From TrEMBL:
<dbReference type="GO" id="GO:0004930">
    <property type="term" value="F:G protein-coupled receptor activity"/>
</dbReference>
<dbReference type="GO" id="GO:0016020">
    <property type="term" value="C:membrane"/>
</dbReference>
<keyword id="KW-0600">Photoreceptor protein</keyword>
<dbReference type="InterPro" id="IPR027430">
    <property type="entry name" value="Retinal_BS"/>
</dbReference>
<dbReference type="Pfam" id="PF00001">
    <property type="entry name" value="7tm_1"/>
</dbReference>
<keyword id="KW-0472">Membrane</keyword>
<keyword id="KW-1133">Transmembrane helix</keyword>
<feature type="transmembrane region" description="Helical">
    <location>
        <begin position="202"/>
        <end position="222"/>
    </location>
</feature>
<dbReference type="InterPro" id="IPR017452">
    <property type="entry name" value="GPCR_Rhodpsn_7TM"/>
</dbReference>
<dbReference type="InterPro" id="IPR001760">
    <property type="entry name" value="Opsin"/>
</dbReference>
<feature type="transmembrane region" description="Helical">
    <location>
        <begin position="253"/>
        <end position="274"/>
    </location>
</feature>
<keyword id="KW-0157">Chromophore</keyword>
<keyword id="KW-0812">Transmembrane</keyword>
<dbReference type="GO" id="GO:0007601">
    <property type="term" value="P:visual perception"/>
</dbReference>
<dbReference type="GO" id="GO:0009881">
    <property type="term" value="F:photoreceptor activity"/>
</dbReference>
<keyword id="KW-0716">Sensory transduction</keyword>
<keyword id="KW-0681">Retinal protein</keyword>
Length: 387
């Protein structure tokens, strides 16, 4: 059977011997690219993969070691770490070896499987960020009244993320578009380039369901959260003690949104640009940059969402110090001012805001506010604030 490259819109189960092209990315490197470019990309992917695997494995390990971290509010963070770990394990390692060779020497079937795996796990991670933002909004602002976030709710959310991601990444293996090599020939991805109706409809649908919708969820959830915090802060008499933590929370949310946009916007913009103008000539190295850049999210996601969390960081330090001292759970009464302020020392900036909201509401007798802070939750829900 001829092992030349399949047509751009060919599915996994099509006959690959139908046509051939002058350059076969499964047989040799692209002649127009200097070898040092592939070596540079291999070194870059080696660094990104090592950092990502070590960081995300540390997140998974510390969650397994410390029981107090295994709370519903942290399920999505661990799910994000698992997805990022799998992205690096599949896409990162394969990309490192293929760039060392300069072409996708593993063959067409490996290309399809690598393209599916990286896209699938990447979309799981992307939607986990949206689910995390939505859960924070639910836990803090209580739009559903007295319904609390429990293990079954978090598990259902995670199951939705995996099933939804699978639904929108499996079609290219079954004929609706395809997974093919990139312009540079060392990675595999959805087919942006053919310009056919079959591929274009998939790309537009994929762009909407896996970029636009989660972005709207993130912006909407964090936007409502910030507006609520500012509203409560404006009603406080002690603005000097309230504005600072509010600014810290707002700054953290801005960092989260910017990280999402910086990671995924180039990839999304490139896919739409190529889909709209498939005849446009692009430099292969330039065309490969968005995909490689998106893989760096697996490195800074753990830093933003885990290592900047005070209790996660404390547990990590204790784990690596091999200390015999256990991190104990707080038995303070969460309805007392003293207990609330102590909880603030254990949590992040969100706990600070929540504590001041609690004190202010109790002193003012405000019984109408539906936005319930972390400090009013039960100890099992409040002891880990994922901000």
């Amino acid at each position: 059977m001829d092992m030349s490259r399949a047509p751009e819109n060919e599915s996994l189960f099509s006959d690959p011997s139908v046509s051939s092209t002058a350059w076969d990315p499964f047989q040799h490197p692209l002649d127009s690219i200097q070898p040092w470019n592939f070596k540079f990309l291999a070194a870059f992917m080696f660094l990104v993969t090592c950092l990502s695997l070590s960081e995300n494995f540390a997140v998974i390990l510390v969650t397994l070691k410390f029981k107090q971290l295994r709370q519903p509010v942290n399920y999505v963070i661990v799910n994000l770490a698992v997805a990022d770990f799998l992205v690096s394990l599949t896409g990162g390692t394969i990309s490192f070896f293929t760039n060392l060779k300069g072409y996708f020497y593993m063959g067409r079937w490996a290309c399809v499987m690598e393209g599916f795996a990286v896209t699938f796990f990447g979309i799981v991670a992307l939607w986990s960020l949206a689910l995390l933002a939505f859960e924070r909004y639910i836990v803090i602002c209580r739009p559903l009244g007295n319904i609390r976030l429990r293990g079954k709710h978090a598990t259902l959310g995670i199951a939705f993320v995996w099933i939804f991601s699978f639904i929108w990444t499996i079609p290219p293996t079954m004929g609706w578009s395809s997974y093919t090599t990139s312009k540079i020939g060392t990675t595999c991805e959805p087919n942006w380039y053919s310009g056919t109706y079959n591929d274009n409809t998939y790309i537009i649908t994929f762009f909407t369901t896996c970029f636009i919708i989660p972005l709207l969820v993130i912006l909407g959830s964090y936007g409502k959260l910030v507006r609520k915090l500012r509203k409560v802060s404006d009603t406080q008499g002690r603005l000097g003690t309230t504005r600072k933590p509010e600014r810290q929370v707002t700054r953290m949310i801005v960092i989260m949104i910017l990280a999402y946009l910086v990671c995924w916007s180039p990839y999304a913009a490139f896919s739409i640009l190529v889909t709209a103008r498939p005849s446009m000539e692009l430099d292969p190295c330039l065309a490969a940059m968005p995909a490689f850049f998106a893989k760096t999210a697996t490195v800074y996601n753990p830093i933003i969402y885990v290592f900047m969390n005070k209790q996660f960081r404390r547990c990590l330090i204790q784990m690596f110090k091999c200390s015999d001292i256990e991190i104990t759970e707080s038995n303070l009464n969460p309805t007392s001012e003293r207990g609330v302020l102590t909880q603030d020392k254990r949590g992040g900036e969100m706990s600070t805001i929540a504590a001041q909201i609690t004190i202010s509401n109790r002193r003012s007798g405000d019984k109408q506010d539906n936005c319930r802070p972390f400090a009013q939750l039960t100890v099992s829900e409040n002891k880990v604030c994922p901000m």
